[in-house]
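Pilot study result, target chain (298 residues):
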Amino acid sequence: MKTEKINLHTHCTFCDGKNSAEEMVLSAIEKNFTIIGFSSHCIYPLTSDFYKTPDDEWHIPENQIQNYLKEINRLKEKYSGQIQIFTGFEADYFEAPEIGSAIPDFDVYKPLNPDFLIGSVHFVNTPKGFYTVDHTVENIRENLIKLYADSRTGLVDGKKAVCEYFEAERQMLAKGKFNIVGHPDLIRKRNGVLKLFDENESWYREEIQLTAKAIAKAGVVAEINTGAIARGTMDDVYPSAAFLELLHSYGVPVCINSDCHNAPDLDCAFDRARHIAKKIGYSELLYPIGNKELIIKF
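Predicted structure:
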């Protein structure tokens, strides 16, 4: 049976994607997608200048948001007979008293009128400062030492770092109002190299169970994200099979997204993700768009 192809997690050159929005649309049409949703990184209403360095800015600049909206609307009209196109954001959660806050929430994003919102945690704020878990191994290692290392031994408290990441995610789920939770265990991305924690440890299992419960309570869809496979940073989907099993047990619906940054990867590992979902017990995917929920049966 041919399965309808949908991707709501797509980045283009308005943020850190490698291709223009139109190139992404053309790739989607070539790959027989029926729906593509754009989800530029956004930390609204904060400006991304707060973390900017000379070689690192991956959120849509504040002065480009309206151009982004206009371009996606233009593409909706141009390709209306070939594919459905939707406008969204991957909305970051961040809170720091000295900087401000960004909450993935439809009320906050109302001026931008998105069709959907993906709520994600990339940044973790600590009393010593903040860092992003979605960076190079070298950058993350440097920040973990700065923020989590014991002053006497120099050893990094990996458990504390992981627990603070998941706590930030639970805060986002409690405070925000969005459709989809993005890559809910992103903290795993560099763990294969950094060896920060063991996913089989009881405390880690407790953290993902608490987070799965929070996802269920928030009533959002959890994405099965294949982006790490496409970029070669981890040979697995987000969330892990163990996390997915918990989500399934709590009745949390799922969708499959590629977190695409490069047009050829738009459907990367979709078959693998479907196989994992089916093995765990899922029989359908749910894509929330606007006021509608599109259900795709396996």
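One observation from the pilot: The first strand starts at residue 6 and ends at 7. A full batch analysis is planned for the follow-on phase.
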